[in-house]
Amino acid sequence: EPSVKICGHLLGITLMGVNSFIHACILYGKWHDWDGTPVDYPPLFYNGIDTFSANLLSDVSDETVAVAKEIVKQRPSVDLSNVSHIYDWYMRCYSDDILDSSDLETAIRTNRAYVGLAHPTKETPDGKYVPDFSFRYITEDIPFGMAVMRGIAEIVGVKTPNMDKVLLWAQQKSDKEYLVDGRLCGKDLRETRAPQKYGITTLDGLLGLEN
Questions:
Q1: What are the distances in angstroms from CA 66 to CA 10, 114, 136, 154, 183?
Q2: Are 167 and 179 spatial neighbours (Cβ–Cβ below 8 Å)?
Q3: How far apart are the two ends of the chain, measured CA to CA in Å?
Q4: What local confidence, expressed as pLDDT, does residue 15 receive?
Q5: Which residues, 6 or more positions from 172, have their beta carbon under 8 angstroms from its beta carbon?
Q6: What is the reported pTM?
Q7: Is 23 designated active site?
Q8: Catalytic, out of 23, 32, 85, 119
């Protein structure tokens, strides 16, 4: 018979939807202070990550781990053992492809699985490039990923200043409003999959324990 591996609670799987914050943090790190000047070529996305972006990614990952720890603190029966820091995730998933595992930045920069992958861009009439903020890294990963994580954090009372910074920037780039004054209550919340969209505002509600 085929074996079944238990991967923990659905909340843990949600918090480990790492692409939603990997993509957003790398985008933020590259373009948050961009002055609008087109670039000569699309910059490398993963292999071009810098220290600022890697540190931001690590900080956001720390926040998701803190959310998991707080959930377990409040409800010890919930198995969130699969929630780990993003560096540990890379070591688990890409160890054979990483040439330098010294830290998170080098692990991403030297990941052979990412060779040649560039930032989403649009070509200008004169053959240069500008970032494409309509790409799925923002239009999908934010409302269906990071906003969900942020909503869980809000419910359990964990502050996420780094996630908030990236989320506020990303929603501005997509002309959306999810996070307002520190709460997920913006006019476009209905377009997300955040628990607040469904009227879920307590941990028991999130765990399906409320009638």
A1: 17, 28, 27, 12, 18
A2: yes
A3: 37
A4: 96
A5: none
A6: 0.93
A7: yes
A8: 23
